[in-house]
């Protein structure tokens, strides 16, 4: 970070608009911090704080100060992005009405999806066909890509400047903590509308997953490749389903990701008793994907596909190498398997009739 900032400040060549903006913001923050008095006694007051608590306190002092250049810049960016998203959603409010309705899973017996080159055709047993233009979806996807890039740029800028300016006060190795604080502060207020955009451009995947939910609403875990020799406590399914509900209701991406991790831990950490052999064994990675598929299908929440897609697009992957990255990749794999489940079922039917 320091080398990159020094290089930017010492640059003699022509700067891009974003580079100039970053340079000016950094210098403004640097100048402003010379007037701050609270850092003088900070280390004494923060001696009993944990690293996350200390980082959060410093960040809150920054963003809650209306005169701080970082706070001012962040407010402008957030307001502009929110306005752009709201405007786009108003222009395509009819597409919001087309998003999958989970209540149909119990009421419908069949869902037919035709994924053509120009449009997506959705047909339920009891309803008329719905036609969704792929041209509009592609336009919205380009818009969302631009918004995602702007959000990523904003988070990186704030992180770099905040971390460099207050590095002497922050706990050691707190860059990831700061990143999560900034990410949460920027994304949480706009999440409710942002996820609608992700759902609209991901509507094809949601309907394909919904199709599997209707087809397999009475299936057991063996349908998804889980060993029929193992018995899983129903409490595991209930706990996982509750966490899936939290994911779609929460406005916090950090909480959503935490739920993904907790579900993976519940599954992999759950002892299963073998019906043939009474000795207990612990479920492993090979059991995770099949059980995730089963739990997701039973949840009746096709929007989980868009939730995980959004997390993948917006979270900085360099902080996702541990259990969070593993949990997210496992969910994405399970969701993709469910999405293509119809093709697998058709192939199996052909083999059985051959």
Automatic annotation (TrEMBL):
InterPro entries: VPS9 (IPR003123), Vps9-like (IPR045046), VPS9_dom_sf (IPR037191). Pfam families: VPS9. SUPFAM superfamilies: VPS9 domain. Residues 203-347 form the VPS9 domain. It comes from Argiope bruennichi. One of its GO terms (cellular component) is endocytic vesicle. Signal peptide: none annotated. One of its GO terms (molecular function) is small GTPase binding. This is VPS9 domain-containing protein 1. One of its GO terms (biological process) is vesicle-mediated transport.
